[in-house]
Amino acid sequence: MTEVLTVVGRVATDPVRGQTRGGIAVTNFRLASTHRRLDPVTQTWVDGETNWFSIAAFRQLGEHAKASLRCGDSVIVTGRLKIRNWESNGKNGTSVDIEADAIGHDLRWGTTAYLRTPRASAAESQGRTPPEPEPDSHAELDESDIAMPLASAWDGLPGAVDSAELSH
Q1: Residue percentage of the chain with pLDDT more than 90
Q2: Any idea of the CA torsion for 33, 34, 35, 40, to the nearest 10 degrees?
Q3: Global confidence as pTM
Q4: To 10 degrees, the CA torsion angle through 105, 107, 109, 115?
Q5: How far apart are CA 67 and CA 115, in angstroms?
Q6: What's the angle, vertex CA 130, arms to CA 58 and CA 60, rounded to 5?
Q7: Which candidate in 53, 57, 96, 163 could, as Cys together with 62 as Cys, close a disulfide (CB 3.0–4.6 Å)?
Q8: Is 120 exposed, middle or buried (0-12, 13-18, 19+ CB in 10 A)?
Q9: How far apart are CA 77 and CA 29, in angstroms?
Q10: Quick one: CA dihedral 94, 82, 32, 40, positive or negative?
Q11: In angstroms, rounded to a whole number, what is the distance separating the alpha carbons of residues 59 and 92?
Q12: What ranges in the chain are assigned the alpha helix state H?
């Protein structure tokens, strides 16, 4: 059975793109995760031990990770845990790997701009020209057409701001 876990940490190495022996794209990087706790005596935050993980992101996730992540970025990684023993040049050790299912920036510490990449249509993936897209039915909408219906949907919920307050 493979354990699925979520780890919050910092990218410790710039992501590196490679390929498996079978030609599948993979991006690898190291992740450092340090547990912090509040010392009740000194009332200061104290770093605990750092856990190190080797992250492997395959295919499109790997391509996006390579384009989006840099050393030092705060991230959240969810994936399957793989623990393996290794031996190389007379040394041996244990590697803790995560085969990533999802990776994202940790928005507690900064902002990011999401850019969705278009997927190839079935026609494009088979080398055919896809049909022309239909005209955008939302092209005539302005910001107020969208903002007010969303704001009024929250009216009356506990802790919600009244939509009349938003229009001022």
Answers
A1: 60
A2: -160
A3: 0.67
A4: 60
A5: 11
A6: 5
A7: 57
A8: exposed
A9: 12
A10: negative
A11: 30
A12: 59-68, 122-125, 143-154, 163-166
- Spatial neighbors of 15 by CB under 8 A, at least 6 apart, are 27, 28, 29, 57, 62, 65, 66, 69
**d(Cα 68, Cα 114) in Å, to the nearest integer?**
10
In this structure, are residues 77 and 7 in contact, taking their beta carbons and an 8 Å threshold? yes
Name the residue type at position 120: A
Q: pLDDT tens across 57-72, in order? A: 999 999 999 999 999 9
Residue 103 and residue 96 in contact, taking contact as beta carbons nearer than 8 Å: no
What totals of helices (H) and strands (E) does the chain contain, helices first?
4, 6
Say how many CA atoms lie within 13 Å of 163 toward its Cβ. 13
Which tens digits make up the pLDDT trace of 126-167?
566 655 555 544 444 343 433 333 333 334 444 444 434 434
- Residue type (1 letter), 151: A
Tokens 């701009």: give the residue.
113
